[in-house]
Task: structure prediction
Amino acid sequence: MSLILLLLSVLVMIYLIVALLRPEKF
Result:
C-alpha cells in the first residue's frame, strides 16, 4: 500500500468519526 493511499484512508476515517460525533454538522 502506498503512503498516499494510507493517508487518504486515515482522513476518510477521521471524517466519518466526526460525522458520527456531530450529525448536525454533517
Notes: Helices lie at 3-21. The longest helix spans residues 3-21.
